[in-house]
Write a structure and sequence with these properties.
Distance between the termini: 7 Å
CATH topology of the largest domain: Diaminopimelate Epimerase, Chain A, domain 1
Largest sheet: 18 strands, mixed
Helix content: 10-25%
Radius of gyration: 19 Å
Number of domains: 2
Strand content: 35-45%
Length: 305
Amino acid sequence: MIEIEYYLVDVFTTQKYGGNQLAVFVDFENKVSTENMLRIAKELNFSEITFIKENYNNEKFKVRIFTPEYEVPFAGHPSLGTAFIISKYLLPKPKENIILNLKHSNISIDLTSINDVDNSDFIMEQAEPEFITTYKHQEIADGLDITLEVLNTQKPIEEISTGLPYIIIPIINLEKINQIKLDSRKVIEFLTQKEKYKTNSKTGLTTSLFFATEETFEKLNSFNTRMFCLENENLIEDSATGSANGCFLAYLLKNKSPEISATVEQGFQMKRKSYINLDGKLKNDKYSLKIGGKVVDLSKGKWKI
């Protein structure tokens, strides 16, 4: 019987059972095929899981990321959670910086405290954003079957990617963002029409939806957000999305201010409170997108292949 080691963590939280769940598998001997990695992702049914496949002299680690539907080239909370496991369990001693070799690009992750990994912030710098499409507010209201009055029509709606594509949709207030209900069939129809669904998109990926408002549950936070993605034709809400928040940070730098420092609350509507720290700058048409948060260690075990 072949077995590999795995770890469970919660990302973007300081409390167990908050943030976003992640399973990290250590597979330096490449015992798990692509087919079986996807099977494991379907079995666990977390938003993502990761496999650490190679260690390059304790400086860089090759990592593959899977949703229950397919492999993705980049994701936020899996990158931070994987860096936590590498720092705590796989290195002789923690380092201030780790490089993850992902399918989309190399991602640099900094630790704020190498002497206390459990209480350290893990901060990733995301790739330069791609501003893909701008949408009209009525177009989004009609396409997603939501009323125009919930949208903040003073702010643009844009599709942005730093490795995964998201449509950033500003909402007028907390009451309206709490009330958002979407129909999977309607969303699939809209995305297919716009060539943003996996069956006809240029990347083979489905674009996800990211809603944001400046009203928050907690006064110390800057934005409340909700992210919805399609998995196997079903619409799923995500409790903490690092990749989407990187796109949101790029959106803010372009449309609000060339320098942003903020805390996003996500997952509150799901009873999984998450806190994502944004730190960004736009200078000479270059974007610096840093997304950070804490990771909570939950469990480890052996997975039978």
